[in-house]
Amino acid sequence: MNGLTNFQIIDIAKRLKINLNAVCAKDELKDYDLKPGLYVINLENSNQGGSHWVSLIIYTNKNKMHAFYLDSFGMLPPVEIENFIKPLHEKLPYNNRQIQPFNSSYCGLYGLSLAYMLQYHRTSDNILNDIHKWIATFPNDLSTSKEVLDKSFYPNKV
Asked: Mean pLDDT of all residues in the chain?
């Protein structure tokens, strides 16, 4: 599968019954409500062609919302995402490890995979532990990341 369009991301989320709140450009995020679920965000603005999909997971713990930012290249979140989560009054945890090769185009699948795991395959009571376990499944040799990503949707195929 090559790079995903917003329509393909929405379709995959529907088929997998993932709680998807938005698929948007980073400048459009401000138009959405902050609520539990997955936000898949393109790092370019809506008037640009699109570059790279990242994800924001909003979840609740003890009746309080929290967030986690996933960029498969391990980069820091943009200011638009930081501003979006300001009502949570917390620092935004994120992955700082690259899990996708730069020469690949399946970045949209990583957020879907993480959301799928969190929704259907949690292994602990600590969501951040589960997220870090998921990240750790990706090898240092990024040439096999796609195979790991494909297996993460088991028993479904995307």
From this structure: 94
Q: Which homologous superfamily is 6-151 in?
A: Adenoviral Proteinase; Chain A (3.40.395.10)
As a whole number of Å, the CA-based R_g of the chain is 14
Pairing verdict, β 20-25 and 37-42: parallel
143: left (phi over 0), alpha (psi -120 to 50) or beta: alpha
Does the pTM exceed 0.85?
A: yes
- Contact between 149 and 113 under an 8 Å Cβ cutoff? The reply is yes
Query: Tell me: the pLDDT tens digits for 60-87?
Result: 998 999 999 999 999 999 999 999 999 9
Domain ranges for the chain:
6-151
